User: Fold these one by one.
Assistant:
Number 1:
Amino acid sequence: MSFKDTYTIRCTACSTKNKVPAEKTDAKAKCGKCGAHLETDTVFSGRSTMVSEQDFDTKVLKSPLPVLLYCWATWCATCKTTTPVIEEFARDSKGRVRVAKLNVDSSPMLSSKYNILSLPYILVFDNGQLQESFPGALPKHKIMMKMAQYI
Ligand SMILES: [Zn+2]
């Protein structure tokens, strides 16, 4: 048990950021401000999660963690080499960043709303807001550097 391991989990009810020690990230964790249940169970997967237009609000806009939204398509050649880098980032940033994957062909409304004109492409969301966007074909350390400010 290490007390240095603290996770920052945003309350999905009142948007307050809660610092939760690693040993308290069980199902009983509650928001210090409003007492709502903190979604600690969904943030420690260490894997990317697929999102679509149906669950975009829940998984991205109401995420308890900052979100790296990786936009890709099956026909995108660069995506084939970038996807493993994104998965590696998801493992490395477990409990800090939610890594979400969006297939742009299956989600044309989101692609057009967020103006995704090239692939692969990364959008960063925090507290329900789009924070920035950048081409996804970056080495992992560059992605880490970009995401560090939201963690
Ligand atoms: Zn709260």
Note: Residues 11, 13-14, 16, 31, 33-34, 36 surround zinc ion (CB under 6 Å).
Number 2:
Amino acid sequence: MPVQRREFLSSWMAAAVPAQALAPRSDPSAWRADFPITRERVYFNSASEHPISVHSARAMKEYVDYLTTDLTRAEWVETPKRTADFRDARLREIRTMFARLINAKPSEIAFIKSTQSGENLVVNGMDIRASGGNVVTNDLHYESCLHSYKMRQKDGLDVRIVKNRDWTIDIRDLERVVDRKTKLIATTLVSNVNGLLQDVKAMSDLAHAHGAYLFADIIQGAGAIPIDVKALGIDFASCSTYKWLMGLRGFAYLYVREDLQGRVVKPTEFSGGVRFNYAPWSSSPDTGSPDFGVTPRTGAAQYEVGNVSNVASYCQYESLQYIERLGIENIRAHVRPLTERLRKQLPALGYRCITPQGNESPIVTFQVKDPKATAERLRKANIELTLRFGNQMRIAVSVFNNAEDVDRLLQALA
Ligand SMILES: Cc1ncc(COP(=O)(O)O)c(C=O)c1O
């Protein structure tokens, strides 16, 4: 191998520093510099898409450089083996880090493409319609997922959608519709509408008391708030990495409780390498063995189909390490006073808050009286957030935001 190329590869692979070797970053004022977007604008839109840190950007750039100038898949070159080992080691560590983040086992985590595909894998794998069961959900679940349930309803599935009361879900409303035929309660952990942290423990208790299971869409929580799937009684969960996990679209996780894998949720899509044991496929077929062989995947990996995105997984590896180094409790301690200040001061400026008081999430949503004028003020002040559903203004606060960002927002809206 030419020296230049060898040096390049070893620098790319040297990035495999184990998480524990990195210093913890407990000083929030230093976090801001990790996110160059803070030099460009005031960004309060991480609930839509989280900016990438310099660390994740570096990992992606190194990989893109490798793809640009160094890619080879030739079997007689040592590189493919080394890159495959590197990729596999990354995926193992990612599985472990994400499992740790939500208090699951690595064998309970599958790599999938999106949050919604995770929910679909669970619902399809449970085959609820065939068993005559019903699904209970609520209107603060993600809108596309509600659409998916509506489509299933047309197909004959019994779906019960509980409506919110003044932007919270009353567990008594769920109790009224759950019955012995309920197979699944599906909900967001944190609502993408108003950031409501739903009472998932009460929902899972309700589900389990009726022999049903609990699915949680955790995309607006993972990376931003503490999540303990065991303590919350969550049986299945999914999330993409492009929000609070500081990753890319197209790379996501599915959590399936160990004892429910393959039994309650059957895989409905299949993958895996096939071995043909006959000529001309095999130069030396084993006459005593079947023509066709495949090693089945075990654990949650049985729900995985196809290759995962290398660039997204290298990005995610850095981001998970970064989140671990910051610590979820430190992240919450940094974000909480910022959202609390917005909660206190924006109503006095005429913006009604539709996020409950004391809510433990990084999202606060307000109603605006004049959405067009508000959009114009935000544009002039170079502030990015989500304005939608006619009159809602969603503010999402992350690790790189600070008190000056909040000052600028309050000034712009005053
Ligand atoms: C609560 C919630 N669920 C699901 C999604 C969509 O996620 P994905 O693209 O991973 O399916 C979003 C995206 O905004 C969301 O906010």
Note: The first strand starts at residue 42 and ends at 43.
